[in-house]
């Protein structure tokens, strides 16, 4: 019974991995140019971050490196598919 259960769970796990691989978003190139990836089309699923980044310069002369605002937008797949 234990061997049957292990075999069944292994089969289910392999099928899940195969299903994920089939739907995973991948870069598309045509004639050497990047194309729109269909999995990235839904803007409502994009992840947005507002960040402050320390620069290498001090433009106001206060002795501290400046900070700069950066807006980052990335597809959801960077979170869910490890892109």
Offer a few descriptive terms.
83 residues; two-stranded antiparallel sheet; 4 strands; elongated; 2 helices; alpha+beta
Helix content: 25-40%
* Count of spatially separate domains: 1
User: Which of globular, elongated, flat, extended, rod-shaped describes the shape?
Assistant: elongated
Rg over CA atoms, rounded to whole Å, is 22 Å
Strand content: 25-35%
Instruction: Give the averaged pLDDT, no decimals.
Output: 83
Spatial gap, N to C terminus:
39 Å
Spans of at least 5 consecutive residues with low confidence: none
Can you summarize the main beta sheet?
Answer: 2 strands, antiparallel
Number of continuous helical runs: 2
Using DSSP, what is the number of strands?
4
The sequence of SSEs as H and E is: HEEEEH
Main sheet: which strands, in order across? 1-2
Describe the protein.
This protein is an alpha+beta fold and 83 residues long. It has one domain (2-80). Helix content is 31%, strand content 27%. The chain contains two helices and four strands, in the order αββββα. It has helices spanning 2-23, 77-80; strands at 28-30, 33-35, 47-54, 67-74. The strands form two sheets. Strands 1-2 form a two-stranded antiparallel ribbon. A two-stranded antiparallel ribbon has the order 3-4. The longest helix is centred in the N-terminal third of the chain and has 22 residues, at 2-23. The radius of gyration is 22 Å and the shape is elongated. The model has no long low-confidence stretch (mean pLDDT 83).
């Amino acid at each position: 019974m234990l061997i049957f259960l292990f075999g069944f769970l292994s089969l289910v796990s392999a099928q899940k991995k195969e299903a994920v691989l089939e739907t995973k978003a991948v870069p598309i190139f045509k004639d050497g140019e990047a194309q729109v990836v269909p999995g990235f089309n839904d803007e409502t699923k994009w992840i947005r971050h507002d960040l402050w980044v320390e620069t290498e310069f001090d433009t106001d002369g206060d002795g501290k490196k400046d900070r700069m605002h950066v807006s980052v937008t990335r597809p959801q797949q960077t979170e869910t598919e490890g892109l």
